[in-house]
Design goal:
With about 325 residues, the protein is of the alpha/beta class. It is built from ten helices and 16 strands.
Length: about 325
């Protein structure tokens, strides 16, 4: 038997709680794993609080992310004792996830844990931080270099935003961090932000073309924030869009794209191919300052994951919540 955070939905309502499950009930897979740490991403928060249509099959074990040790494997790339990272691939949505002491996984989904990270640090990064790295890689593919101008990071105290600020700051970019938590200015500057702005400057409807300011943007917010960010990007700049904390709508025009040559790069972390995942994790191992990562972490036991998920969806969490399994 093993413990897991299980989500249930029926005619009588929704529930989330710790239960004991049998290994025989795990889904099919070629790797049996001991999960040491998981984490809370925004999607986890929506699933665990039933605040969004994330879960497609019931009952569901929560957790899109996990890191731990292989117990058994019939996959050629994995042997007993190997340490792994898992992000996405529908876990916690259509297949039992990783907020559990045991998981059965597909070896093709797993990334080797970089030697630079412990499993705890890997889950402090999690899908949110790995997505932030995918955003940085997209900006670099577009040709962005330190010294090209200010880079805006929206939702900066969140998981994606915090890691994006830390990464870009260490790489030498001048970061302006947008947040609704202006009291967190010291935290954001500790991570690497040069300046902090109130998200209210971006979150209301704005003109389709505005004064040019940003060389690039990392946006985890969507809606009017993304539209205004695009309207303020300098000629030839790039916006990496990876989230919808404000909303899934995009109330914009084509004008920034056809008059200023702005590029809008969509970032998907859930189904990204393994080679891109490995590239992102290899870069995180070299480009993310461990001390800045530690400054983001709040660790909770599995028993408190549902409570922290409610805080996350209510906007009461900064940085990264690590769940000790």
């Amino acid at each position: 038997m093993f413990k897991a955070l299980q989500l249930n939905k029926s005619e009588t309502g929704f529930s989330a709680g710790i239960v004991d499950l049998d290994e025989a009930s795990l889904p099919a897979g070629d790797v049996l794993a001991q999960v040491e740490y998981s984490t809370l991403n925004y999607k986890d928060g929506l699933a665990i609080t039933n605040a969004g249509p994330v879960v497609r099959s019931w009952p569901m074990v929560a957790g899109i992310d996990g890191a731990g040790t292989v117990l058994e494997s019939t996959h050629p790339a994995w042997t007993t004792g190997d340490q792994f990272i898992h992000n996405g691939w529908g876990l916690g949505e259509t297949r039992w996830g990783l907020m559990a002491e045991r998981a059965r996984l597909q070896g093709d989904w797993l990334v080797k844990l970089p030697i630079a990270f412990s499993t705890r640090q890997a889950m402090a990064i999690g899908t949110a931080g790995y997505t932030a790295m995918l955003c940085v890689l997209a900006l670099e593919r577009h040709g962005l270099k330190p010294g090209d101008g200010e880079v805006l990071v929206t939702g900066a105290t969140g998981g994606v935003g915090s890691v994006a600020v830390a990464l870009l700051g260490k790489l030498g970019y001048r970061i302006v961090a947008a947040t609704g938590k202006t009291s967190e200015e010291a935290y954001l500057k500790q991570l690497g932000a040069a300046a902090v702005m109130d998200r209210a400057e971006l979150s209301a409807p704005g003109k389709p073309m505005q004064k040019e300011r940003w060389a690039a943007v990392v946006d985890a917010v969507g809606s009017h924030t993304l539209a205004n960010a695009c309207a303020q990007v300098r000629y030839g700049g790039v916006v990496a869009a990876c989230g919808l904390a404000q909303g899934a709508d995009f109330p914009a025009t084509v004008m920034p794209f056809i008059l200023r040559g702005v590029t809008l790069a969509g970032i998907d972390s859930v189904m990204a191919p393994l080679a891109r995942r490995q590239q992102a994790w290899d870069r995180l191992a070299t480009d993310l300052d461990p001390s800045r990562l530690e400054a983001m972490i709040e660790e909770v036991p599995l028993a408190r994951a549902a409570e922290k998920a409610a805080d996350l969806t209510a906007g009461k969490v900064r940085g990264r919540v690590v769940v000790k399994i």
